[in-house]
Design goal:
There is one protein chain. With 205 residues, this protein is an alpha/beta fold. Helices cover 23% and strands 23% of the residues. The protein is built from six helices and ten strands. An eight-stranded parallel beta barrel has the order 1-2-3-4-5-6-7-8. Strand 7, helix 5 and strand 8 form a beta-alpha-beta unit. It starts with a strand and ends with a helix. The model has no long low-confidence stretch (mean pLDDT 94).
Amino acid sequence: MKIKVCGMKHAANIAEVANLHPDYLGFIFYPKSPRFISEVSAELIKYVPAEIKTVGVFVNEEIEEVKIKIAKHQLKAVQLHGAESVAYCTELKSAGIEVIKAFGVHPDFDFKQLEPYAPIVDYFLFDTQTPAHGGSGKVFDWKLLDDYQLDQPYFLSGGIGLEHAQQIKTIQDPRLYAIDVNSKFELEPGLKDIEQLKEFFDNVK
């Protein structure tokens, strides 16, 4: 099981979390997020150990701006949380970057809308539907994923905390590629609790 820790923004905390060897580290480039990373802190992304995939999280950003951030910060993946089109994803994929397309899941969510994206993106990410595009700390009903019929692997996100570790281990879906954690492991927005993360890693890895 891969683990992604998202919403990093403080220099020392980035280094501490990197020392736990997550598979992915996420950095939010969405200005309205309380976990928006400053340009100063973003300069540290390129120093994250090479074996950790650094992910830029964007919401309806101009594609040229995304490309600039990818090059400047040597991002290895992008996570798209807005209404980005299939063409948008295709253009980024053709630039050689790993593409994760996020969708907010709710009881009326139509999984058929994912079908055009499946041949293009590397992974889907299923999060809790919120107006703020993630970071809500709320868990959606994982049973809704029974309606997901595609073969594309996915990240499971949305309010996942230490209390979900045992439940995660019981999921038998081979398409579940990674667990994405964020707000439930924070002392404040963007500042992660290292001891809690350690315990989660020990329980899930």
